Amino acid sequence: MSSGSEFRRLRGNRTQQQMAFDLEGISRESVSSYETGRNPIPKDIASKAMRQFDDPRFALTVASEYTDGAWAPALDGPAADLYRTSVQTKCVEEFREAIEALQKAVLNVQPKYLDNFQKQDIEKSGEEIAEAITAANTYLMVVCKDYKISWLKIWARHKAKLIHKGFLRMVKGGDKK
Fold it and tell me: Domain residues of the chain, as ranges?
């Protein structure tokens, strides 16, 4: 799904005018243009929508779209089994495959001395990690939705831990350096 389709899904039974009012400072015409894909959803509007609806599927769709597909998308295809136990099983399977690929990858050799097989193993480990990230995001999306857990609070607590442990630096206004 596109971010416009997800934006429309967020609106639910509300009118476009009600959605515009809920998000403060945008017009009904803007809501329409985002939903139809005539205009991309600006970052500030996507942020308002996240704060208003705290919706993991919207978050994943916007993140994937804003990075030209360089982030794990929200799965929505016909083969996507989004039942809790299926998602949990798939997540465990993908993590096992990622761990196996990581263990096989040779990283203690300078890149210029790698042979083709070693380089393929490293690339394969990256692909397996991407699959594990997709599975993990899908798991988190499903459990947040089904158990009414805040996606935003999960990520806010995670970010606070990273800052506390010194893995992230913060500057005035809360933006990462």
Answer: 3-66, 84-147
pLDDT for res 177: 47
CATH topology of domain 3-66: 434 Repressor (Amino-terminal Domain) (1.10.260)
pLDDT for the residue numbered 174: 55
Cα distance between residue 156 and residue 169, in whole Å: 14
Give the chain's largest Cα–Cα span.
61
Phi, psi of 176 (to 5 degrees): -70, 140
Whole-number Å distance between alpha carbons of 166 and 10 = 36
Residues of the chain falling short of pLDDT 70: 171-177
Per-residue confidence (pLDDT) for residue 29, from 0 to 100: 97
